[in-house]
Amino acid sequence: MEKTYEFLKKCGTYYIATMDGDKPRVRPFGTVNIFEGKLYIQTGKVKNVSKQMHANPKIEISAFTEGKWIRLEATAVVDDRIEAHQSMFEEYPSLLNMYKPGDGNTETWYLKDATSKIISIGGEVIVENF
């Protein structure tokens, strides 16, 4: 999980794919955090991505930087504890312009049953399961 976290942090922006009924949806994300030994992302409950993850929590994340890309398959699990929110805001204080812990909109999700592949153009593949 550490290499996955480091890669996503280095990218800054990654892309998350969800399903909206029978249609795929992809959008940029920028939050990633490790809290209590799990990899977390964050969004707002009012967003379509939240509704899509509640309906089908299987997601895929992809990003590219410095001649390497990542493909991360996982099941997203919502964690609405204030502690999870606060941990994300400590990592990303700029989010406090839009969200607050326990505001009824903030949503943190951890990734489980995850397989991450970091692949270089040269062919090296790093696999992490968490």
UniProtKB/TrEMBL annotation:
InterPro entries: Pyridox_Oxase_N (IPR011576), Split_barrel_FMN-bd (IPR012349). SUPFAM superfamilies: FMN-binding split barrel (SSF50475). Pfam families: PNPOx_N. Residues 3-88 form the Pyridoxamine 5'-phosphate oxidase N-terminal domain. It comes from the Bacteria. This is Pyridoxamine 5'-phosphate oxidase. It comes from Anaerocolumna chitinilytica.
